[in-house]
Amino acid sequence: MSSLLYIGNKLSDHGYTSTSIETLGLFLEAEGYTVYYASSKKNKFFRMLEMLLMTFKYAKKVDYVLIDTYSTINFWYAFFISQLCRILGVKYIPKLHGGDLPSRIVRTKFFSNLIFKNAYINIAPSFYLYEAFKKNGYTNLKYIPNTIELQIYPQSTKEFKVPKILWVRSFAKIYNPLMAIMVFINIKKKFPEAQLCMIGPKKDDSYEKAIRFAQKNNVEVTFTGKLSKEDWIAVSKDYNIFINTTHFDNTPISVIEAMALGLPVVSTNVGGIPFLLEHNVNALLVSDNDIEGMTLQVNRLIEEADLAATIAKNAKETVAGFDWEVVKKQWIDLLQ
């Protein structure tokens, strides 16, 4: 079996949402791969330092360096680690993330070329990123979707008499949590008994703003903070609709998980979302920040008797292809 050094933000112990480094890393370990990790340091400077040191330490001991690659400051982690890998002569594999990465590779084309054109292969977890990179001249590409363990997402029977809305994401401006509360305020005009639960860790001041906004508008919203996967799956049994309000996106795991749980999804149609979701087929879609549109689509799930059941069924069929038991064959073939 191959051995790997996995570079990424391993920060769940600090209250952040688990990312690919923690989920995919564990999946690969379970298949018999040896996986080393960097980094779990909360401070960005020390995290970068540990990533560099670990790359020096393990470059001659591993077969590949896998690098979670994003569009914001983490892009520079990927740049420096990838160039160090080139100097040390170790194969590296960027795993692409983030709805805004296509604009990043245009804005910083010189640095992007140094990372991605010299990679052993670039892994695109969505056709959205695959097509964006292909369009920009990158040919060393492979599509391997984000993955879940389908068996841990029990599908409970839902009733659609009152909207019981679930939102699961980090509280950050990019994910537009205030939109969820604005939609909820509209929903309660027609369904006074409607509920909204918002699950996720604080990433910027969006969490405090959301609480203040709910209080100012006199609506009762359940804010749980960060929950473990097991805990939020348990909470989801009490809800019947999932909303995704983000400004930018790729193929969010939280949406895939909601689909696996049998929750019909209403989402903004941004970034990679239209590559995952089809309006009126396996989800309901609205434009970015379209509060009235999302209100209308949530109401439809309650008012149109068969719609919610049909969308939930189609969504479950869609996510069957994201199960680790299906996806792992592609990773094993790649890493042999």
From TrEMBL:
UniProt-listed Enzyme Commission number(s): 2.4.-.-
Kindly state which keywords UniProt assigns to this record, in alphabetical order: Glycosyltransferase, Transferase
Q: Which InterPro entries match?
A: Glyco_trans_1, Glycosyltransferase_grp1
Q: Broadest EC class?
A: transferase
| Ranges for domain Glycosyl transferase family | 159-317
Alphabetically, the GO molecular function entries are: glycosyltransferase activity
Tell me the Pfam families matching this sequence: Glycos_transf_1 (PF00534)
Q: What is this protein called?
A: Glycosyltransferase family 4 protein
Q: Which organism is it from?
A: Flavobacterium buctense
